[in-house]
Amino acid sequence: MAREFSTVGVVGLGIQGAGVAEVFARAGVAVVGVEVDLDALERGRALVEHSTERAVAGGKLTEVERDQLLGRITYTARLADLADCDLVVEAVTENLELKAGVFAEVDRITPPDTVLATNTSSLSVTEIGVHTGRPERVIGMHFFNPAPVLKLVEVVRTVVTEPDVITDVENLLRRIGKTPLVIGDRAGFLANSLLFSYLNHAVLMYEQRYATREDLDAAMKYGCGYPMGPLALLDLIGLDIASEILDTMYKQSRDRLHAPAPLLKQMITAGMLGRKTGRGFYTYQ
Ligand code: CAA
After folding, report:
1. What is the pLDDT of residues 189-206, one digit of tens each?
2. pTM of the model
3. d(CA 144, CA 165)
4. Is it the case that residue 16 has pLDDT exceeding 80?
5. Atom number in ligand 1 closest to CA 145
6. Residue 19 has pLDDT above 80, yes or no
7. What ipTM does the predicted assembly reach?
8. Given strand 138-143, what is the order of strands in its sheet?
9. Are 121 and 94 in contact (CB under 8 A)?
10. Among 22, 35, 51, 121, which one carries the catalytic annotation?
């Protein structure tokens, strides 16, 4: 029988985690959002509030639905408050040690049949899962930014993930309006593997002064119908995240398409991470 997931925990309420919390809450699921401290919780809450304001402005939600959505999310700085969750989605910084620590702790706190998912973009789900006593209930659940808008979720199975867990998660994702795609555990999975070679290529062309940032973005937006050009998209994703994804893919594939463009590293060192720091390839207010 299909498993009902009624309470979902989300650990890490950055842009991705806040988006994931919003998606579940919008579909009527109770969400427990966890962050390290009260300041981070307030930032997470503000992200959900801002995003749902846009949804109302765009006619995607009514004011009443927005209030109900916001009312389904509780915010806490204690992982122990995840004790009643039947699914926990981890969305903390892309760092294996950090994620492994969160998984070990959540494994201790939650009932044995709780499904533990990671929103990692490029790290090995298998490696994260072995830090728990239930690797067969560990899965990748990779959302795309902005999570409330984009439909795809890559469901990453490892060699030990139980088939029932995959089916339950696929059904849940369909129930909340997403399009799941089940794939194996490989750096970059499917979409990022294709996308990031292209984004990296755009940075190299810009670095070599082959084209201006505006021309690069216009080419893909108006010539190929992409919603935004590659440099604008990198600013949205965050250059630090993009570089980590490329690094991980390059280590595994040794494909030079994945070797991060030197300019990316320089911009990161200079603090130009994209929208979140106010400056990347473009400047933001
Ligand atoms: N809930 C539901 N809908 C919402 C919403 C919310 N919280 N916020 C906005 N929307 C809707 C809007 O109403 C609007 O709908 P319509 O198109 O029907 O009018 C739509 O979403 C677009 O929103 P905006 O008008 O506010 O913004 P925009 O038109 O400038 O689009 C964008 C912005 C959605 C980011 C679009 O440019 C886009 O899809 N860009 C590509 C993003 C992309 O490629 N992401 C993948 C990155 S890679 C990744 O994420 C993987 C990783 O591991 C890092």
Report:
1. 999 999 999 999 999 999
2. 0.95
3. 21
4. yes
5. 50
6. yes
7. 0.97
8. 73-76, 30-34, 7-11, 87-90, 115-118, 138-143, 152-157, 179-184
9. yes
10. 121
Q: How distant, in Å, are the alpha carbons of 4, 98, 267 from that of 81?
A: 20, 19, 39
Asked if the model's pLDDT at residue 285 lies above 90, the reply is: no
**Ramachandran angles phi, psi of 245, nearest 5°:** -65, -45
HEC-encoded secondary structure of the chain: CCCCCCEEEEECCCHHHHHHHHHHHHCCCEEEEECCCHHHHHHHHHHHHHHHHHHHHCCCCCHHHHHHHHHCEEEECCHHHHCCCCEEEECCCCCHHHHHHHHHHHHHHCCCCCEEEECCCCCCHHHHHCCCCCHHHEEEEEECCCCCCCCEEEEEECCCCCHHHHHHHHHHHHHCCCEEEEEECCCCCCHHHHHHHHHHHHHHHHHCCCCCHHHHHHHHHHHHCCCCCHHHHHHHHCHHHHHHHHHHHHHHHCCHHHCCCHHHHHHHHCCCCEHHHCECCCECC
Name all domains of the chain by residue range, CATH numbers in brackets.
7-184 (3.40.50.720), 191-277 (1.10.1040.10)
Distance 107 CA to ligand 1 centre (A): 33
> What distance in Å separates the CA atoms of residue 172 and residue 177, rounded to the nearest whole number?
9
Cα-to-centroid distance, 7 and ligand 1 (Å): 26
Catalytic entry in 94, 131, 142, 200: 142
CA dihedral 79, 84, 85, 91 (to 10 degrees): -10
- How do residues 214-257 score in pLDDT, each as one tens digit? 999 999 999 999 999 999 999 999 999 999 999 999 999 898 88
